[in-house]
């Protein structure tokens, strides 16, 4: 790190990932000062560029605010890696880079001459992080898919929903929001290894295995008790009441969880100790679990006559685990904690327009923690990357453009 600079200043990264996991991780590297080149093909760009929402609901490869959120602070280079002259660029890129993060199926980089085994022969200090569905080796290493399929493969889908219905799954590819943190840890471990030994390394990361870390309880429950957990709706094995309860107004809800008798007593006092809370059927935790349906009906009767703010404030002041069920507008416009920490930053983009970008969920005491710039348009930095970063002469660059290398 340079004096008064950011922790990763001077670190050079090639982002060969797409969709969510890899782009998020590489964006956080850029936030900390790394120079990150997002490498795409002009004819086959990152699919997330075509994901809603779009500025003014007009689609386009540069108009997706989802892409803009995950790729702020990066440079964009388009390169047709199947072109016979692409090696002139990839050779320079591999010498330029300290780190390559990639998410292609095993074997894909071999065809492009970018495998770790090949790169380390010309640059032993190179660090590569390969992230795939199930790792680089094994009987299912080449199985294609994205976070939606992985959500089912890991077991999240089986656990999500109501006990009397089919699995509901999640509206987002949840595993894709787990693995970025493992990618960051792997990158930093690789940099530390290189600092100590002078050598790089290849990290083989399986998103299946990173996701399973978040399912330790049901896995251990089966390993120890031979009990196969399944869907429970909003209930919890060790809490009652536990659920999402309606509040006054349209589509306003409060999440409440009571785990101990002490919490139950505090909950009752916060509600004003209505008569029904003193009934024998609710005296102990086991009683409350036995009569859980009736308990939930009575709690919903109390919450539904009050505003979400009133319910949340009363319960939180009493030390009860309770929180509002927030929508996008709430998070962006009404959440005072997120506003205090400046979690959402507004950036201007020539095509995506003014849009909110999420800052990293951590702050460094000796940094400004500002975002560097908005996400790049497709191929926006082709000339800059080739001339200033890779040192390609203008006449050679023009020849490569003419030959269609950057298509």
Explained architecture:
- This protein has helices at residues 21-31, 65-70, 87-96, 108-111, 116-122, 147-154, 156-159, 179-197, 207-212, 216-225, 261-270, 285-290, 292-303, 308-317, 328-334, 336-340, 382-389, 394-403; strands spanning 12-16, 35-40, 75-78, 99-102, 127-132, 201-206, 242-246, 253-257, 321-324, 344-349, 353-358.
- The strands form 3 sheets. Strands 3-2-1-4-5-6 form a 6-stranded parallel sheet, sandwiched between helices. Strands 7-8-9 form a 3-stranded antiparallel sheet, with helices on one face. It has a two-stranded antiparallel ribbon with strand order 10-11.
- With 407 residues, it is α/β, with parallel strands linked by helices.
- The protein folds into 2 domains: 12-214 and 343-403, Rossmann fold (3-Layer(aba) Sandwich), CATH 3.40.50; 242-332, 2-Layer Sandwich (formyl-coa transferase, domain 3), CATH 3.30.1540.
- It contains 18 helices and 11 strands.
How would you briefly describe this protein structure?
This protein is of the alpha/beta class. The chain is built from 18 helices and 11 strands.
Descriptive labels:
407 residues; alpha/beta; Rossmann fold; formyl-coa transferase, domain 3; 2 domains; 6-stranded parallel β-sheet; 3-stranded antiparallel β-sheet; 11 strands; elongated
Count of distinct structural domains:
2
Number of strands: 11
Broad structural category: alpha/beta
Helices, by number, come to 18
User: Beta-strand percentage?
Assistant: 5-15%
Side by side, the strands of the main sheet go: 3-2-1-4-5-6
What is the string of helix and strand elements?
A: EHEHEHEHHEHHHEHHEEHHHHEHHEEHH
The largest pleated sheet is described as: 6 strands, parallel
CATH H-tier superfamily of the largest domain? Crotonobetainyl-coa:carnitine coa-transferase, domain 1
Helix content: 25-40%
Q: Which regions contain 5 or more consecutive residues with pLDDT less than 50?
A: none
Mean pLDDT: 95
CATH topology of the largest domain: Rossmann fold
Radius of gyration: 26 Å
CATH top level assignment of the largest domain: Alpha Beta
N- to C-terminal separation? 36 Å
CATH architecture grouping of the largest domain: 3-Layer(aba) Sandwich
């Amino acid at each position: 790190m340079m004096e008064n600079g950011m922790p990763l200043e001077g670190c050079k990264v090639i982002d060969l990932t797409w969709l969510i996991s890899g782009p998020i991780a590489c964006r956080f590297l850029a936030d900390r000062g790394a120079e990150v080149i997002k490498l795409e093909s002009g004819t086959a760009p990152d699919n997330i560029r075509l994901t809603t929402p779009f500025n003014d609901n007009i689609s386009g490869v540069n108009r997706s605010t989802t892409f803009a959120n995950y790729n702020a602070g990066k440079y964009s280079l388009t390169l047709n890696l199947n072109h016979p002259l692409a090696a002139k660029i990839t050779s320079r890129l591999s010498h330029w880079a300290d780190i390559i993060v990639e998410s292609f199926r095993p074997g894909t980089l071999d065809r492009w001459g970018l495998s770790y085994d090949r790169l380390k022969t010309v640059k032993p200090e190179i660090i590569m992080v390969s992230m795939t569905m199930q790792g680089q080796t094994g009987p299912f290493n080449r199985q294609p898919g994205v976070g939606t399929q992985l959500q089912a493969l890991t077991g999240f889908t089986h656990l999500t929903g109501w006990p009397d219905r089919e699995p509901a799954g999640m509206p987002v590819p949840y595993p894709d929001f787990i693995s970025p943190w493992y990618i960051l840890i792997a990158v930093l471990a690789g940099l530390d290894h290189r600092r100590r030994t002078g050598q790089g390394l290849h990290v083989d990361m399986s998103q299946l295995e990173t996701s399973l870390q978040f399912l330790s309880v049901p896995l251990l429950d089966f390993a120890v008790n031979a009990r196969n957990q399944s869907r429970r709706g909003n209930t919890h094995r060790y809490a009652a009441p536990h659920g999402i309860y309606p509040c006054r107004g349209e589509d306003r809800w409060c999440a409440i969880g009571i785990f101990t008798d002490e919490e139950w007593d505090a909950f009752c006092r916060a509600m004003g100790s209505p008569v029904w809370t003193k009934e024998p059927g609710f005296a102990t935790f086991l009683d409350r679990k036995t009569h859980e349906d009736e308990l939930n009906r009575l709690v919903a009767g109390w919450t539904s006559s009050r505003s979400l703010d009133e319910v949340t404030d009363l319960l939180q002041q009493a030390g009860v685990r309770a929180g509002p069920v927030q929508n996008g507008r709430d998070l962006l416009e009404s959440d005072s904690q997120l506003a205090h920490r400046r979690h959402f930053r507004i950036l201007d983009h020539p095509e995506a327009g003014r849009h909110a970008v999420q800052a990293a969920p951590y702050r460094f005491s000796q940094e400004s923690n500002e975002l560097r710039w908005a996400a790049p348009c497709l191929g926006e930095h082709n000339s800059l990357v080739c001339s200033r970063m890779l040192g390609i002469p203008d006449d050679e660059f023009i020849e490569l453009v003419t030959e269609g290398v950057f298509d």
